[in-house]
Write a structure and sequence with these properties.
heterotrimer; A alpha+beta; B alpha+beta; C alpha+beta; A: alpha+beta; Beta-Lactamase; Rossmann fold; Helicase, Ruva Protein, domain 3; 5 domains; 6-stranded antiparallel beta sheet; 24 helices; 44% helix; 16% strand; elongated; B: alpha+beta; Pnp Oxidase, Chain A; 8-stranded antiparallel beta sheet; 39% strand
């Protein structure tokens, strides 16, 4: 077989020529090494490698492939000298020369490829002639169809396959071992350069990712810090406000307040219970805080409003507590136990302890006897009733006496007038800051008035007056006018003393007549309910409502003394002041009532409504909050119907609705179906429906329907058949009462009792085992609300 | 006995190589620079240059075994002729012309793909014969590279 | 007896030019064949590829002596090698290298998997002779 023409078997030339060639090769290699090591840019690496091949050997066809992460393919990243540059093309490992080199990680040198192709072609022809042509595959076109030599070398870095570097030539049939050695040197440099560039890229990406994460973290930290700073500012503001409430009452330099401060210092280190006695608003809570602070107890100061302990079942505190007091423990006592747990190591402050639910007495008495160990709680209680005077019911008196082994009398503000300037200055500063007002102080004349005033509401009233003055002032020096002080805001002939409550239409205040000693309740109508309605129209409506109410004479309807529009433009009613409980508060506080008592109360409501209905007036807002149970003289469980504010004249007069919006008026939980669906003619039977809803609430302690939204509630009234109250309570409900209430709850008014009078008659005929008596009522009031007795 | 196809092949073939063995069964290779088939269709005259003469005659005279592979390059179509030595003689002018024809065939086939190889080197590859050996061809084998190489063509394999 | 291959023969062998191999059967019949590559193992050994079972393979299994002619056309030189078959290898660096070469050429020419290297036959070099010939006049 002839030798391949064109092969070079020796390095021709004289020694000088050889030396010159070697020197040039070294220079090329050095330059290549410098270029490859001075860059971390992959494209520059590839370009430098390809250029070097041309400089070294005049190999003008070169290609660089890198291994893909899948470990199965190689991807062309750079090439030179090919018509189709092929960058991005892929080669499978094991396929073709390049794939073979990558798979076996060994260099391959193939020379005289023309001859080898011819040899192979002969073999192909022979196979075809022998009938084995189908065994032949496609003859793939190599890098160059006419390549005469090819040298492919794997690029390895620490045994890791980086890729393949391949050169070929259509002219050079062979490479000498020396030349192959030079290519190998360059290939090694390429491998290292690519490896380093990748490492650098990976680390750069990691650093960028870390930077981004840090930046994100910084942003989140900054946001969180800002949020915390906001929370801190709010907390500081609340603390400041709390402090002002606490500090204010203890300011001053009068002998009285000095005695108070000395008492605080004396009582602080003790562990025994402490009773604070003083009038409402005198600062008993502030004194309790001061005692706690001076005691240096490490635990928290936990406030318990004893009147609110009656609604303990809804307290979130119960959900958080880990106290195990047994399944039989009443919920009110459990509530107290939870508060006790929170106060561990600190102070438990029982505000208005005389209103503590009786269910809590055993636990408190055990604490007072020192029988509850392991909690280390100091009990401080407050009361407006001096236990020494007695008359609060035997058990309450006993409790107060047990608490009063150590006591502090908190003086009324009137007993320490010298302190008023200091207290005023303190509150003005704090309140102005809170309200965002620039107020520097009070005028001297106003200070004189403030100092001279009696302050029946004590420090609480003082704070309220100052707050109102700062809110309305347009000057930096506030003026306190006479009328602001003379027992409160003037409303007609009355002065507002203290708020009693608020409702959908407005606020109700305790008020006093300028001249008469008779206290009254004043209802101020909210300004926003008048929006959009012309003023004179509003006045006419308001007057009509007041006239309607004032015209009703039933003793079971609240008496209206007066009505009008005050200087600030607010509408007001003046009504008889009632002491007792509205039905909602009573049931919430004392639970479902026996059927006989509920019947007695319902009958009284029927009498009130009967009169109104006789005049063609429909209340439209009969609900437990508008059924007030009081004591009048020697009569107990005396019920009065309140709030005829949205009375509708069924004879078709314009609606006396003090609202600009066409909203359904009434309370959703007690609303008659015909009111829900907006029937044009509504009569007194709508009130009977609502009254039956109230009766169900009184008997069961639960609303007739359960709903999460007002719309759902209204829908139930319109569509859902109610469950009889006897099935909603474990207390006995006479079947006749059950049936009668279900009759009142018929969707169609025609199915209900024809009138309130008729309903009263039905109620009277219900046979009960033990009718509710006067004695029972007395006993109940004596037990549960002794302070109510004798106040009317 | 040599098929016509192979006779025509012999006209265009341009590379040859012979093999003998000595009495110790040591094989020897010999360059071949020409060939001619006698009219009887079975006597093949093989022309050997100086470089192929070593061990040739003594091996042939010892055992008479000769194998000649003749190829058309670069197609690599090739056949091996095995036979018994008949005689050898001095080359004639006609033999030199036969060698020249082979040389020209070789040049014509290889020069287009020779690339940088010098023309004189190609010309020198087919040397001038110095001895002619007549072989009585007994078998002809396919020798074209591939899985079928070695198949006997004459006489046909069963 | 073993001869050393001179360095100058290496590029000729590495050229991958088909060579001519003469073997002889045990009953004395010579056989000439074309072989695709003579692989340089070391200075006393070469390897020849064994791709399919042929007369040549049968002969050297019977009679280990072989004669290989390698032509260096541009060098006006012919190399004559007397070899003796030593053993076959089906794995190892020599086998891998020869296999890789065969695979590479096969992949270039659409004959992948057709001519698999069955073994690399290792031959000891008994003698090596360089024959230069003059240019044709």
């Amino acid at each position: 077989m002839p030798d391949a023409p064109g092969s070079s078997t020796t390095s021709p030339g004289s020694p000088q020529e050889k030396l010159a060639r070697r020197t040039k090769e070294l220079e090329v290699l050095q330059r290549a090494a410098e270029n490859l090591s001075s860059t971390l840019d992959l494209n520059e690496i590839y370009a430098s490698a390809l250029r070097t091949m041309g400089e070294l050997f005049e190999f003008h066809h070169a290609i660089i492939l890198v291994a893909e992460p899948d470990g199965k393919t190689l991807r062309v990243v750079a090439s030179r000298g090919y018509d189709d540059q092929r960058v991005g093309g892929r080669v499978e490992l094991g396929v073709g020369v390049i794939g073979l080199v990558a798979e076996r990680r060994k260099a391959l040198y193939a020379s005289n490829l023309g001859q080898q192709r011819a040899y192979a072609a002969a073999q192909r022809r022979q196979m075809v002639e022998a009938g084995r042509g189908q065994e032949l595959g496609e003859a793939p076109v190599p890098g160059l169809a006419d390549a005469e030599s090819q040298f492919a070398i794997p690029l390895l870095a620490r045994d890791e396959l980086i890729g393949v570097f391949s050169i070929e030539s259509p002219l050079r049939r062979t490479l000498t071992p020396h030349e192959r050695g030079l290519v190998s040197i360059v290939a090694n440099q390429i491998a290292i350069a690519i490896h380093n560039a990748r490492l650098f890229e990976e680390r750069t990406q990691a650093a960028i990712a870390l930077q981004a994460a840090n930046a994100s973290l910084e942003v989140r930290v900054a946001e969180r810090t800002a949020a915390l700073e906001r929370e801190l500012r709010v907390a500081e503001e609340l603390l400041s406000d709390a402090r002002s409430r606490v500090e204010g009452p203890l300011l001053g330099d009068s002998g009285t307040v000095r005695v108070l401060r000395e008492a605080i210092a004396r009582e602080a280190p003790r562990h025994e219970p402490l009773l604070l006695v003083g009038p409402p608003g005198a600062g008993k809570e502030a004194v309790a805080h001061a005692v706690h602070a001076a005691s240096r107890r490490t635990g928290a100061f936990i406030f318990v409003s004893c009147p609110e302990a009656h609604t303990a079942s809804r307290s979130a505190v119960l959900e958080l507590s880990t106290v195990d007091v047994g399944p039989e423990c009443p919920v009110e006592a459990r509530f107290l136990a939870c508060k006790l747990e929170l106060a561990a190591g600190g102070t438990l402050y029982l505000d208005a302890v005389h209103e503590l639910p009786v269910e809590c007495y055993p636990m408190l008495e055990a604490i007072l006897r020192g029988e509850r160990v392991g909690t280390d709680v100091r009990v401080i209680a407050s009361t407006t009733h001096d236990p020494g005077l007695g008359g609060h019911g035997s058990r309450v008196d006993a409790l107060l006496r047990a608490l009063s082994r150590h006591r502090i009398v908190v003086p009324a503000l009137a007993d320490r007038r010298e302190d008023i300037p200091a207290i005023v200055g303190h509150f003005v500063h704090r309140l102005a800051r809170q309200l965002g007002k620039t107020v520097t102080g009070v005028s001297p004349e106003s200070m004189t008035r403030l100092t001279a005033y009696l302050w029946p509401g004590n420090i609480r009233e003082l704070r309220t007056v100052l707050e109102r003055a700062i809110m309305t002032t347009r000057s930096s020096v506030i003026e306190i006018e006479e009328d602001l002080l003379d027992e409160g805001l003037a409303v007609g002939s009355y002065r507002l003393v203290s708020p009693l409550g608020s409702g959908g239409m407005g606020e109700v205040w305790l008020a006093k007549h300028r001249l008469l000693a008779r206290p009254a309740a004043v209802k101020l109508i909210r300004h926003d309910v008048k929006q959009g309605v012309p003023h004179d129209q509003l006045v006419r409506r308001f007057q009509r409502e007041a006239q309607v109410t004032a015209g009703l004479r039933s003793p079971h309807t609240v008496q209206l003394y007066d009505f009008g529009v005050n200087d600030t433009g607010s509408f007001y009613y003046v009504m008889e002041l009632l002491n007792g409980f509205d039905l909602h508060s009573m049931i919430t506080r004392f639970g479902p009532q026996p059927a006989e008592r509920v019947i007695a109360l319902l009958r009284q409501a029927c009498r009130s409504l009967s009169e109104a209905h006789t005049y063609g007036l429909v209340h439209r807002d009969i609900k437990p909050a508008n059924l007030f149970v009081t004591c009048l003289g020697a009569e107990y469980d005396y019920l009065k119907v309140l709030d005829f504010g949205i009375v509708r004249d069924e004879r078709g007069s314009d609606a006396t609705l003090l609202t600009a919006q066409n909203l359904v008026q009434g309370t959703p939980a007690f609303m008659a179906p015909e009111v829900v669906i907006g029937e044009a003619r509504i009569d007194g039977r709508a009130d009977l429906y609502s009254l039956a809803c109230c009766a169900c609430f009184a008997l069961t302690g639960r609303l007739l329907f359960q709903a999460s939204t007002a719309a759902q509630m209204l829908l139930h009234h319109a569509q859902t058949r109610p469950v009889p109250p006897s099935q909603m309570t474990e207390l006995p409900v006479p079947p006749e009462l059950d049936a009668l209430l279900m009759m009142c709850l018929e969707k169609a008014p025609a199915q209900r009792p024809s009138s309130a009078m008729a309903l009263d008659g039905h109620l009277a005929r219900i046979k009960v085992e033990r009718p509710w008596t006067h004695e029972q009522a007395h006993e109940w009031w004596d037990t549960h609300a002794p302070d109510t007795l004798g106040r009317q | 006995m040599i098929p016509g196809k192979i006779i025509h092949f012999l006209d265009r073939a341009n590379v040859g190589h012979a093999g003998t063995r000595d009495r110790k069964l040591v094989p020897h290779g010999h360059r071949v620079c020409g060939w001619a088939l006698a009219p009887d269709g079975r006597t093949l005259t093989v022309l050997v240059p100086e470089g192929g003469r070593e061990h040739l005659i003594e091996s042939l005279e010892d055992n008479g075994q000769l194998a000649v592979t003749i190829e058309e390059y670069p197609r690599h179509e090739a056949y091996q002729f095995k036979g018994r030595y008949v005689r050898h003689r001095q080359v004639t002018q006609e033999d030199a012309e036969i060698a020249q024809r082979v040389r020209e065939n070789f040049m014509a086939s290889v020069l287009p793909i020779a690339g940088e190889v010098a023309v004189h080197a190609l010309r020198a590859f087919v040397q001038s014969p110095v001895v002619a050996v007549d072989v009585d061809v007994r078998e002809v084998y396919l020798q074209t590279p591939g899985p079928g190489a070695g198949a006997r063509l004459v006489p046909k394999e069963a | 007896m073993t001869a050393r291959l001179p360095g100058e023969i290496r590029p000729v062998l590495d050229n991958g030019i088909p060579a001519i191999m003469v073997t002889c059967s045990a009953d004395g019949v010579p056989n000439t064949t074309v072989i695709s590559q003579v692989y340089y193992v070391d200075d006393t050994h070469v390897a020849l590829s064994f791709q399919f079972f042929s007369k040549t393979i049968r002969n050297v299994r019977e009679n280990p002596r072989a004669h290989v002619t390698v032509n260096d056309v541009p060098g006006l030189t012919t190399w004559l090698l007397e070899l003796e078959f030593e053993h076959s290898e089906t794995e190892g660096p020599v086998f891998d290298a020869m296999d890789m070469q065969i695979e590479a050429i096969a992949s270039m020419t659409g004959m992948t998997g057709i001519f698999k290297l069955r073994a690399a036959d290792i031959y000891r070099v008994i003698s090596v002779e360089k024959q230069s010939y003059p240019p044709h006049a």
